[in-house]
C-alpha cells in the first residue's frame, strides 16, 4: 500500500468574543487540521493565532527562513520516523522564523493524531509505551483577587475530588511579600492539609532571586510541593541560585521551552525538580517525549503543561503516558467555553482524582466543528494582491 502524503494543512483562528487581560490561555485557540489521503488529524498550537498563521504561509526570506508549510506539504506520512523527519526539515528550513516552533507544534500534534487514526492505535502506543498509566490531575486555576476568593476556589477544588491544586498568576508576586503569603495560606486553608498545593509565579520576578527567595518561607510553611516559573525560562543562574535556597519546596519550569535543548538546560543547570512541557510550544509530541526520557535519566519529574482545550490536554499527556512514576498532570478547571467546545469526547478525572487517557486511535478525541463555528475568526493575508491565507471551511 502506497503511504499517504500530507495534502492539506488548515489553520483556524478561534476566539472568545471578548478577551480579558488575565493569564488565561484558553480565551483563543489556533486549531490545526492536517489531511493525508483519506485520513484527518487535529492539533492545537499554544500561541497567538495570527502571527502563527503568518508563519505557516509567509513568503520565503532566504534559504533558512521559509514558510513552515513548504517543509510539510507533500511529505510522506507512513510511520513515526516520517514525523521526526518532517520536524527536522521545519527546524532547518525555518531556522530564522522564530514563530516556527509554535507553527510546527500544532502540525506535529495533528500528524501524530492522523497517523494513530490511520494505523488504529493510540499515540502513546506509537511512542513505544505498552500501556498508559492514569495521572493524578491537579486542578489548575488562577489566584483570586483576594485571599478569601482563593480560599473559596481551593475549597471547591477539594469538594470536587481533586487530590492536588495549583494556583498562579493573578496578584501573586506583584505586591508585598506579606500579601503573597496570605494568598498561599488561604489556598492551603481551603485545600486542607492532605492535598498537594502548587504555586505558579508566571515568571513575575524576571531573574530577581531575592524577590523570589522572600516568598520561600510562606511556601515552606504551607508545604507547597513546587514553585513554578519564578523566572524566565532562560534565567538558568537565577533558577540554580534559588534552588540552592529551597528546603522542602522544589522548582518547576520548562513550559516556555520551544526546543528540547532549552528544557534539558533547565534540568542540567537550573536545579529544577519538575520539568513542565507544553506540546503546543516545544515542537509537538515527539520533542516532549524526548524531554520525558531525559528527565527520567536525570531523576527529574516530568509534568505536562496545558491550560487550554481537551485536545491540547490529550496531546500533552501522550509523551509521558507510559511512565508510572511521573504521576501529576495539569488539568484546567477554569477553561473558557471555547476550550470546552473543542471536542465532544469528555476528559475528566474519575472519583479518585485520576485522569485516564482516551483509548481511541490517535489522540482519542473527536473535534466538534459545528460547536466551534461560532468562535471562528475571519482572516485573510494578502501580499501584492496574492492571497496567501484565507480562513478555510471548518466543516468541510
UniProtKB/TrEMBL annotation:
<dbReference type="Pfam" id="PF13378">
    <property type="entry name" value="MR_MLE_C"/>
</dbReference>
<dbReference type="InterPro" id="IPR029065">
    <property type="entry name" value="Enolase_C-like"/>
</dbReference>
<dbReference type="InterPro" id="IPR013342">
    <property type="entry name" value="Mandelate_racemase_C"/>
</dbReference>
<dbReference type="InterPro" id="IPR034593">
    <property type="entry name" value="DgoD-like"/>
</dbReference>
<dbReference type="InterPro" id="IPR029017">
    <property type="entry name" value="Enolase-like_N"/>
</dbReference>
<dbReference type="InterPro" id="IPR013341">
    <property type="entry name" value="Mandelate_racemase_N_dom"/>
</dbReference>
<protein>
    <submittedName>
        <fullName>L-alanine-DL-glutamate epimerase-like enolase superfamily enzyme</fullName>
    </submittedName>
</protein>
<dbReference type="InterPro" id="IPR036849">
    <property type="entry name" value="Enolase-like_C_sf"/>
</dbReference>
<dbReference type="Pfam" id="PF02746">
    <property type="entry name" value="MR_MLE_N"/>
</dbReference>
<feature type="domain" description="Mandelate racemase/muconate lactonizing enzyme C-terminal">
    <location>
        <begin position="147"/>
        <end position="249"/>
    </location>
</feature>
Amino acid at each position: 500500500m502506497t503511504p499517504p502524503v500530507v495534502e492539506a494543512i488548515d489553520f483556524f483562528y478561534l476566539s472568545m468574543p471578548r478577551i480579558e487581560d488575565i493569564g488565561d490561555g484558553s480565551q483563543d485557540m489556533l486549531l490545526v487540521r492536517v489531511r493525508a489521503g483519506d485520513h484527518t488529524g487535529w492539533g492545537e498550537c499554544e500561541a497567538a493565532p495570527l502571527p502563527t498563521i503568518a508563519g505557516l504561509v509567509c513568503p520565503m526570506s532566504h534559504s533558512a527562513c521559509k514558510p513552515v508549510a513548504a517543509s510539510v506539504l507533500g511529505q510522506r506520512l507512513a510511520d513515526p520516523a516520517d514525523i521526526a523527519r518532517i520536524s527536522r526539515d521545519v527546524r532547518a528550513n525555518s531556522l530564522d522564523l522564530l514563530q516556527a516552533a509554535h507553527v510546527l507544534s500544532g502540525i506535529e500534534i495533528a500528524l501524530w493524531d492522523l497517523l494513530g487514526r490511520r494505523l488504529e492505535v493510540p499515540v502513546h502506543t506509537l511512542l513505544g509505551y505498552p500501556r498508559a498509566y492514569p495521572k493524578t490531575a491537579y486542578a489548575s486555576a488562577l489566584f483570586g483577587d483576594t485571599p478569601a476568593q482563593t480560599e473559596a476556589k481551593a475549597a471547591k477544588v477539594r469538594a470536587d475530588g481533586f487530590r492536588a491544586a495549583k494556583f498562579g498568576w493573578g496578584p501573586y508576586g506583584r505586591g508585598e511579600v506579606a500579601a503573597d503569603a496570605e494568598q498561599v495560606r488561604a489556598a492551603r486553608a481551603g485545600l486542607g492539609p492532605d492535598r498537594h498545593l502548587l504555586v505558579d509565579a508566571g515568571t513575575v520576578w524576571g531573574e530577581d532571586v531575592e524577590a523570589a527567595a522572600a516568598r520561600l518561607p510562606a511556601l515552606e510553611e504551607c508545604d507547597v510541593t513546587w514553585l513554578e516559573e519564578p523566572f524566565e525560562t532562560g534565567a538558568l543562574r537565577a533558577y540554580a541560585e534559588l534552588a540552592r535556597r529551597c528546603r522542602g519546596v522544589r522548582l518547576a519550569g520548562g513550559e516556555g521551552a520551544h526546543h528540547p535543548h532549552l528544557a534539558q538546560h533547565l534540568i542540567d543547570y537550573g536545579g529544577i525538580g519538575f520539568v513542565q512541557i507544553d506540546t503546543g510550544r516545544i515542537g509537538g509530541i515527539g520533542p516532549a517525549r524526548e524531554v520525558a526520557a531525559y528527565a527520567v535519566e536525570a531523576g527529574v519529574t516530568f509534568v505536562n503543561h496545558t491550560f487550554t482545550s481537551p485536545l491540547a490536554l490529550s496531546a500533552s499527556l501522550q509523551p509521558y503516558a507510559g511512565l508510572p512514576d511521573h504521576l501529576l498532570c495539569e488539568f484546567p478547571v477554569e477553561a473558557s467555553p471555547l476550550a470546552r467546545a473543542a471536542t465532544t469526547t469528555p476528559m475528566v478525572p474519575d472519583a479518585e482524582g485520576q485522569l485516564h487517557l482516551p483509548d481511541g486511535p490517535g489522540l482519542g478525541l473527536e473535534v466538534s466543528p459545528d460547536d466551534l463555528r461560532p468562535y471562528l475568526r475571519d482572516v485573510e493575508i494578502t501580499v501584492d494582491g496574492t492571497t496567501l491565507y484565507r480562513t478555510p471551511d471548518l466543516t468541510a
